[in-house]
Hints:
Blueprint: H1 5-8, H2 13-20, E1 24-29, E2 36-38, E3 41-43, E4 52-55, H3 56-64, E5 68-71, H4 78-90, H5 102-112, H6 120-143, H7 157-184
Antiparallel strand pairs: 1-4, 1-5, 2-3
Helix pairs in contact: 2-5, 3-5, 4-6
Amino acid sequence: MALPVPLRDSVTPHELEMIASQQLIEIVPLIAMERTAFISGAYGPLRPPSKAKIPLWMAVNLKLKKKCHIIPPQWLSVEHLQDRLAQEVANPDAFSDLPFRFTEISKVLLDVASDDLENPDQIRTLLKDLREARQAKSREGLRHLDHSELGLTGLTSMEINEIRPFFVQSMSLLTKLARNTEATT
């Protein structure tokens, strides 16, 4: 089956979530488990009630089986997100500092472990507001595009993936125009 044209030039959001699932996250296990080796590395041992760091994919698997509680990252709190949103609004020229894969990780945690988060509805709202503020900055940055570079530092993986198709086509067109201008002069 062929992918739709817009998805051929970029990674799908589901693929980005899969890549982000390699990130380590802290859990409180509800079961004991010896150190176990996987392709990506060895994790464990798990001993309740001691915290452990394991990949997000493993934490999701254990959470769905009700064998752990996920400890949300520090940046996935109402206070931290409110602070980042205030920074986004206050500084129109720069993006606030967020983890590179915060969109994917927060989506997975809100889908699977919302009971482990404080105020998940408020977190969802803040993430949506943050996303809209950052998208507005991205669109504004793309308006100032020239054929040599795009200066949008601080973008996350999902944001880069969203603008990639437009950016690649635009840069190609601008480069052709620059070459044509140089050739005619």
